[in-house]
């Protein structure tokens, strides 16, 4: 039995989807109103999240605790009329499973005990067995999917190879990517070896999430925007394109969202992939993105001599908008939706923030954002 047959039979074990607005929008089908969710919708801005995390002890224990990971995934859905859920986990589970020793220092974000700096470090990296070292993620996916009971579709996710590589080489978060870019310009072959291993890992990881019950996938290329133009194509896009192509072989029915923060300049580049949706941050106007994507569709159709389907767009409210008043949030949402539908087509768009919601947002303002999207008449 092929992997896709397997996933289809697994998917049928779960309750049918009651709210398919998000899936309809990305297929350019008619919708009653605009679907909306928020990147990092489970997190520290919610007091109930902080309480559950305190019970679990620390962040990774929360990720590994099936019941609590399910609980925090569902918390934002109890407060808000969201059109999707996203697995509670982290992009850094892959490097952790590869033995880099992830830990969180209070107030300092993620850190790795064993960053990748030498050929020996790279050669030691094991092949990822998602159902073995990351079985806690798969258990969470299945548990969340069951608990949702068809309420909304469930996103699985992964970091992109480039974004994961920055954490693995730097040993944590970075502002300048000193070591990663150092390799890029002094020993590109080394970086390509790591990215190649990560691409294989991401494919198997996302494949396993679909088999466990994920209905849509997002690849977070959070730091792709740090690259130069040609470097983005070679060190980020090429690997994302390969990942999406392989996922489409294994699971043709599962939509894929590709989100590159700072990737607005490269929509034409990213259009040359089988991703169904491209995520935008707030620097790129949605109407302009639509024009670029329509032109790319025409060019790629010519290039491949085969009709290419249009990419839906996801995004792109500046998360800092949620520090504003309810009236400001509503005005900004209306302007965003005017821009999304300016071309006249009233579908093909998923509302979201342009990056993750921050811990300083008042939860009531997130509700204003979500309700304003649904209140907008399309
Ligand atoms: O203190 C805490 O409770 C930990 C904060 C936290 C949370 C809530 C971290 C550590 N990760 C998460 C959850 C998380 N991370 C989700 C959950 C699902 C949801 O969206 O509700 C997701 C999708 C992620 C993905 C993630 N982790 C990304 C990609 C998205 C993005 O924001 O660009 C990245 C870059 C990370 C790394 C990471 N993990 C945690 C932190 C604080 C960071 C960022 C550090 C940095 O800025 O470099």
UniProtKB/TrEMBL annotation:
InterPro entries: UROD/MetE-like_sf, Uroporphyrinogen_deCO2ase_HemE, Uroporphyrinogen_deCOase. Pfam families: URO-D. Catalyzes the decarboxylation of four acetate groups of uroporphyrinogen-III to yield coproporphyrinogen-III. The lineage of its organism: Bacteria, Pseudomonadati, Pseudomonadota, Gammaproteobacteria, Moraxellales. Homodimer. This is Uroporphyrinogen decarboxylase. The gene is hemE. Pathway: Porphyrin-containing compound metabolism; protoporphyrin-IX biosynthesis; coproporphyrinogen-III from 5-aminolevulinate: step 4/4. It comes from Psychrobacter aquaticus CMS 56. One of its GO terms (cellular component) is cytosol. Keywords: Cytoplasm, Decarboxylase, Lyase, Porphyrin biosynthesis. Substrate binds at residues 40-44, 90, 167, 222, 355. Signal peptide: none annotated. It comes from the Bacteria.
């Amino acid at each position: 039995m092929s992997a896709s047959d397997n996933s289809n039979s697994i998917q049928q074990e779960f309750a049918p989807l009651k709210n398919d607005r998000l899936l309809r929008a990305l297929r350019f089908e008619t919708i009653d109103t605009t679907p909306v969710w928020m990147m990092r919708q489970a997190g520290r801005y919610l007091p109930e999240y902080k309480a559950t995390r305190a019970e679990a002890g620390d962040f990774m224990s929360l990720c590994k605790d099936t019941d609590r990971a399910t609980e925090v995934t569902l918390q934002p859905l109890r407060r808000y009329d969201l059109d999707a859920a996203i697995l509670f986990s982290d992009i850094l589970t892959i490097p952790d499973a590869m033995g880099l020793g992830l830990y969180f220092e209070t107030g300092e974000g993620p850190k790795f005990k064993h960053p990748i700096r030498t050929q020996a470090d790279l050669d030691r990296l094991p092949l990822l067995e998602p159902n073995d070292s990351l079985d806690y993620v798969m258990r969470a996916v299945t548990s969340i999917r069951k608990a949702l009971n068809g309420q909304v579709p469930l996103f699985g996710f992964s970091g992109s190879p480039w974004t994961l590589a920055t954490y693995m080489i730097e040993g944590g978060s970075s502002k300048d990517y000193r070591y990663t870019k150092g390799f890029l310009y002094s020993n590109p072959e080394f970086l390509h070896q790591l990215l190649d291993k990560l691409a294989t890992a991401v494919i198997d990881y996302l494949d396993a999430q679909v088999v466990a019950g994920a209905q849509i996938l997002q690849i977070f290329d959070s730091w792709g925007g740090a690259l130069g133009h040609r470097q983005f194509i070679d060190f980020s896009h090429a690997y994302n394109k390969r990942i999406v192509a392989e996922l489409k072989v294994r699971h043709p029915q599962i939509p894929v969202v590709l989100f590159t923060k700072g990737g607005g300049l490269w929509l034409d580049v990213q259009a040359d992939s089988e991703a169904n949706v491209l995520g935008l941050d707030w620097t790129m106007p949605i109407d302009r993105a639509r024009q670029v994507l329509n032109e790319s569709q025409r060019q790629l159709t010519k290039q491949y001599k085969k009709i290419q389907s249009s990419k839906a767009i996801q995004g792109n409210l500046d998360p800092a908008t949620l520090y504003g008043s309810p009236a400001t949030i509503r005005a900004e949402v209306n302007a965003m939706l005017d821009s999304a539908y300016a071309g006249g087509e009233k579908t093909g768009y998923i509302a979201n923030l342009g990056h993750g919601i921050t811990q300083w947002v008042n939860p009531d303002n997130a509700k204003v954002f979500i309700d304003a999207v649904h209140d907008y008449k399309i």
